[in-house]
Amino acid sequence: MNVARVILVLVFCTFFTASYFTNKYVLSILKFTFPTIFQGWQTSAGTLLLLVTWKLGWVEINGFSRSAAFSQLPGSFLFIGNIYAGSKALSLLPIPFFFVFQNVSEVLAFLIRTATHREKPPWMKLISKNLHFICPLYGSICLTSQFGPSGYTWASIHLFCVGAYRIFQKNTKTILLSDLEEQFINYLTSALLLASLAYSTGDLSGALDFPLLTSYRFYTGCLGSAIFSFCLMLATVKLKGSLSQEHCGIWFFLAKILASGLSLLLSIFHAVLSPVTLCCIILNYAGEALFLYSERFH
C-alpha cells in the first residue's frame, strides 16, 4: 500500500471514530434525543457542505436528470429510516453493541444475495453469519434489563434499513448517478422530509425546551457531528473508489474495532458492559473477521 492510501485509511479511521463519538456525545451525554432536529441539521449541513465543496472544485458532481433523481428516492427513504432509527438506537446502546447490531444488516443482505443467486455459500461464511445473527439476538433477549427494550427495537429498524439500502444499491446501481450524487439526493430529501416532520413529532417543541440549548457544549457537539459526518462520507467515497471491496471491508472492520475500544476506555461515555455483553461483542467481531477471511478465497 502506497503512502497516499495509508494517509487515506488513517483519515477514514479518524473521521469514523470522531463521527460516532460526537454523535454519541450529543445523543447520550447531552441527551439531545430529537432525531428530526439532529439528523435534519446534519443532512442540511451535509447538503450545504457538498454544494460548497462542489463549487470550490474539491468534489465532482455532474448534472443528473430528473428521472435519475426519482430512481434514487426509494433509497433516500431507506436512508432516512437508517439515520433516524440509528440516532435513536445510538442514544440508548453503547457504541460497541451498536456496531454488533449493524453487522446483522450484513446477514440480511447476504441471505437475500444467496437466495437470489441460488448458490451454496462456504462453511466459513455460514459460521460467520451465524455469529453475526446469534450474538445480537442473544444480547437483546438477555440484556434488556441493562439497556432497555427500546434500544433494541430502534436498532432492529436501523439494521433493516441499512441492509435494505445495501440491497437497493446493488440491484439498482446505475451509471446515471455517482456515489456523491446519490448522497446529495439522500441529504436533500432527508433535510426536507425531516424538517416537515419536526413539528408533528413533537421534536421541535422538545428542542426549544432543551435545557442546554444555550450551552457552548451543545453547539460545539452539533457542529462537530455535522462536520465529522460529512468528512466521513467523503472519506468513505474516496476509500471505496481507491481500494477493492475486500480491502474496504477490512478497514471498516478495523475502524469499528478502534472506535469500540476507545469508547470503552473513555470515561465520558460511561460504557460499563457485563461479561455476557463483552462476550457477545467479541464473538460478533470474530464472526466478521472470519467472513472477511473467507472472502479472500471466494
Describe the 3D structure.
This protein is mainly α and 298 residues long. It has one domain. The chain is built from 13 helices and no strands. It has helices at 3-29, 35-55, 66-71, 73-92, 95-117, 123-142, 144-147, 149-172, 179-197, 203-208, 216-242, 245-265, 275-295. The longest helix is centred in the first third of the chain and has 27 residues, at 3-29. The protein is globular and about 55 Å long. The model has no long low-confidence stretch (mean pLDDT 83).
Concise structural overview:
The protein contains 13 helices and no strands. It has 298 residues and is an all-alpha fold.
What Rg do the Cα atoms give? Answer: 19 Å
* Beta-strand segment tally: 0
Percentage of residues in strands: under 5%
Task: Assign an overall shape.
Answer: globular
Largest sheet: none
- Rounded mean pLDDT is 83
Overall helicity: over 70%
**Contiguous uncertain segments of 5+ residues:** none
* Tally of individual helices: 13
Total tally of structural domains: 1
Alpha-beta classification:
mainly alpha
* SSE run: HHHHHHHHHHHHH
Termini Cα gap: 22 Å
Task: Spell out the blueprint of helices and strands.
Blueprint: H1 3-29, H2 35-55, H3 66-71, H4 73-92, H5 95-117, H6 123-142, H7 144-147, H8 149-172, H9 179-197, H10 203-208, H11 216-242, H12 245-265, H13 275-295
Helix pairs in contact: 1-4, 1-11, 1-12, 2-9, 2-11, 4-8, 4-9, 5-6, 5-8, 5-13, 6-13, 12-13
